[in-house]
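REQUEST FORM: STRUCTURE PREDICTION
Request ID: SP-0412
Submitted by: Lab K.M.
Chain count: 1
Length (residues): 459
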Amino acid sequence: MAGSQQESFIAYPVTDPILAARMEAIKQLAGGLSDRVAVLDREFNVIYANESAWSEGASQQSGHQAKCYQAFAHRADPCGTCPATKVYDSPDVQSVACSIGGDGTACGMRQAFPLVSSGGEVESVLVLFRERPKPEKRSSVEQEDATCKSTLGELIGSSEPMREVLAMIRLVADSPATVLIQGESGTGKELVAKTIHQTSYRRDKPFVVVDCGSLPETLLESELFGHVKGAFTGAHATKRGLFEESDGGTIFLDEIADTTPVFQAKLLRVLQEGEIRPVGGNQRIKIDARVISATNKDLSGLVQSKGFRQDLYYRLAVLPLCLPPLRERREDIPLLVEHFVAMSCSRHRQPLRQVSPEVMVALTQAPWPGNVRELQHYIERAVVTTAGPALSCPDLVPVGATSVAHDLRSVSRGAATQAERMHIVQALQQAGGNRVKAAKLLKISRASLYNKLRSYHIQ
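STATUS: Completed
RESULT:
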């Protein structure tokens, strides 16, 4: 029964080694949470559920063995077509959400994630439930708690996709299981990894970042595992690897999809054995580092095309986490814009600038193929290259414009104009507003500077 002190447990045994590892990780991190978490099989049997998930009417005599619609929706019959079945029918589906209304018959499923066995089949689903309804009038403490749920560390977002990501981060933070973060370039995968580390009990230990795509295989192996003196040409001294440097903390393997099959085999052994062997060495070193990896590629697709080891994929993706692109969380853009404006103004020693409603609408409607990173860089460029108390439409490149000059000459002219304007503003700031000194810094005449100030509308 919900609220009892009886320990939550796995109602049905799990024999597959990969699924067993994932179940143990889920059990460890969900056991003490107030959030409702459950794992269901193909027949809707509740394989596992933490105590918060069980409804008040769940029978304790039944040993918590029940169908999901019985335990969570108070129904004697199945709910009909459950969205969770999509993860079994389509292997490419990373997660699904339930859109059933609040008529009291739905189980309250917020999102479901597939759990894949060592054979590559989806055998069960991890389900996160919505919070149970609370009284309409909330205390100030509850309101503050709701606000906190829209931010976590440096991550910002009040949209439903981001609230689900933040909830998942809180869920997986203290688990020792590996996390695989997938998402487009610029969605903030490294920031999510850092937030997971800072939210966990490992926060006081090192957080080590490795860009796997920028290092050749031989150098990557030496960087991660270390080497002994004389292991290869140029190895003049013994060097500790980054796995050893991150002992007790977290190691973040970015662009993991760009590694070679040989390196993948060695990394798999490290994850299986929990120990490393330096290049050229004979002794193995035990390490205790939380491994978080990330990629902007479809790793499951690479597994199917033999471009990535299947066994390593399942070892890395014990706890998968998908980040939504910015176009799927547009309601977060005003929050991000305000944050980036304040951050850029502080960095460039400018007074806080305001964003006009017209600009905010344009920013919200822009496509942002580079996601949050592109938005951040755009805001910083706007702050540096514009003047006045507010960022207005004429001061900005029209990101929402429908007509774009595609010829290289027009593009290069626009880039040169923006760069020149930025240098003039920086020179004026460096000269404390003195135009004579600014002209000397720019190595142009005062007349030329005055003409450019008028041309660029710089006050």
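NOTES: The chain has 17 helices and 17 strands.
Reviewed by: T.R.
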